[in-house]
């Protein structure tokens, strides 16, 4: 029995096949172009495994429709990526593969990966943020994704501009929301170079840490999770974690007694595998729940 994973991101789709122990047997990435082209690659990747496939887990960029009783369930909906607007992702996969499909956001999938196999293993509630090309957040409380009329869009929370930061933000919807101020492209536009090329000693990183700390502060006050996991390309700056913890402590002023920050504000234990592991585990879960 095999499980499939699709991490559908804005720049690439990472497809993987795992066995019953969720060990990854094969993994490949395809560029995100348009649904016709990218999905052709995705379908071709899984076809050789079709006979043994028991379920597929998809973690997609969004916004997406997650309501099972909605006529557009399984669609990518109002994404700024025009070619992908109103794309019937789950429907398309179901036409190609007659297996149960788990469908959630890319960050929820990564949150689930950490919840099952990483920093969330021994706790009930985790929040996962990715700070990369965009900022996204997903939360699990007592084993369930936090959602209501739709999935959360935590990356667009408002942040208070730093006094030393004159950048106005680049979110097309909100300007200076968290994504507009702190995602990779905002760093690049502000400083004229990629985040990876900004030295650790650059004072900008204190400003960046301040925005991420505001996000952790808001998350703490709203959800009181057991752990907050910060992933994505920008957190590859290993010095950032400690800067975020310091800025968070200053913001919180001791108002809430969180778990020790060394275990409360962390980077993903699974590193870049959180999304794939989450999708595989969700595939296994949906396959088992529909077993006769
Ligand atoms: P995506 O969000 O597209 O899935 P990533 O999480 O890798 O992918 O995020 C990519 C973003 O992170 C880019 O804007 C890139 O400039 C930035 N980034 C990647 N590596 C680093 C690094 N070491 N330091 C700072 N920023 C980085
Ligand atoms: Zn925004």
Describe this structure in words.
There is one protein chain. The protein has 2 domains: 2-106 and 272-291, ATPase, nucleotide binding domain (Nucleotidyltransferase, domain 5, 2-Layer Sandwich), CATH 3.30.420; 119-267, Nucleotidyltransferase, domain 5 (2-Layer Sandwich), CATH 3.30.420.40. The longest helix is centred in the last third of the chain and has 20 residues, at 204-223. Helices cover 34% and strands 21% of the residues. α3 crosses α9 (274-289) and α6 crosses α7 (240-252). The chain has 292 residues and is an alpha/beta fold. The radius of gyration is 19 Å and the shape is globular. The two termini are 15 Å apart. It has helices at 35-46, 89-96, 106-117, 178-182, 184-191, 204-223, 240-252, 261-264, 274-289, and strands at residues 2-8, 12-18, 24-31, 53-60, 75-76, 87-88, 101-105, 125-131, 135-141, 144-145, 227-231, 265-266. The structure holds adenosine-5'-diphosphate and zinc ion (ZN). Zinc ion binds at residues 156, 171, 173-174, 177, 179-180. One of its GO terms (molecular function) is fructokinase activity. It is an enzyme of class 2 (transferase). Its EC number is 2.7.1.4.
Offer a few descriptive terms.
alpha/beta; Nucleotidyltransferase, domain 5; 5-stranded mixed beta sheet; 9 helices; binds adenosine-5'-diphosphate; binds zinc ion; fructokinase; magnesium; EC 2.7.1.4
């Amino acid at each position: 029995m095999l499980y499939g994973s699709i991490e559908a991101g804005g720049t690439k789709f990472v497809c993987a096949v795992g066995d019953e122990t969720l060990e990854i047997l094969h993994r490949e990435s395809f560029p995100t172009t348009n649904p016709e082209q990218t999905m052709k690659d995705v379908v071709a990747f899984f076809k050789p495994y079709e006979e043994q496939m028991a379920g597929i887990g998809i973690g997609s960029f969004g916004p997406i429709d997650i309501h099972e009783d909605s006529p557009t369930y399984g669609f990518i909906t109002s994404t700024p990526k025009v070619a992908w607007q109103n794309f019937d992702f789950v429907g398309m996969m179901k036409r190609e593969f007659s297996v149960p499909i788990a469908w959630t956001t890319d960050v929820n999938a990564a949150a689930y990966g950490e919840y099952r196999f990483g920093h969330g293993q021994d706790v009930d509630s985790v929040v996962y943020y990715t700070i990369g090309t965009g900022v996204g957040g997903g939360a699990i409380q007592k084993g369930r994704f936090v959602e209501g009329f739709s999935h959360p869009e935590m990356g667009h929370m408002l942040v208070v501009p730093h006094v030393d930061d004159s950048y106005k933000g680049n979110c097309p919807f909100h300007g200076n929301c968290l994504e507009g101020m702190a995602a990779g492209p905002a760093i690049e536009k502000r400083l004229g170079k990629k985040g990876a090329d900004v030295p650790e000693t650059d004072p900008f990183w204190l400003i960046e840490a301040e925005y991420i700390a505001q996000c952790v502060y808001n998350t703490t006050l709203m959800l009181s999770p057991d752990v907050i996991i910060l992933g994505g390309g920008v957190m590859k700056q290993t010095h950032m974690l400690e800067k975020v913890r310091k800025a968070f402590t200053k913001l919180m002023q001791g108002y809430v007694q969180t778990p020790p920050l060394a275990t409360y504000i962390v980077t993903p234990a699974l590193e870049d595998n959180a999304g794939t592991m989450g999708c595989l585990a969700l595939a296994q879960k949906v396959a088992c729940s529909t077993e006769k």
